[in-house]
What we know:
Keywords: 3Fe-4S, Electron transport, Iron, Iron-sulfur, Metal-binding, Transport. This protein is α+β, with helices and mostly antiparallel strands. It is built from two helices and five strands.
Amino acid sequence: MAATAHSEIRVDRSLCMGSGQCCWYAPNTFDQDDETIAIVTDPQGDPEEAIRSAVSGCPTGALSIVENEAE
């Protein structure tokens, strides 16, 4: 789980199969840990469009973006 000013990027570790698609779409935001499970390294590492492409391109739906409500 990683937070940005307006949203939170979540990785469901039980769904991630380690395909690496997120790293391909947004390499400055995502990486893989020692178990090849996706992790968020920098929630603002790539343009929002690239991050959203990584989320929508995840083959197992392990990634999501949760919009934070205005405070």
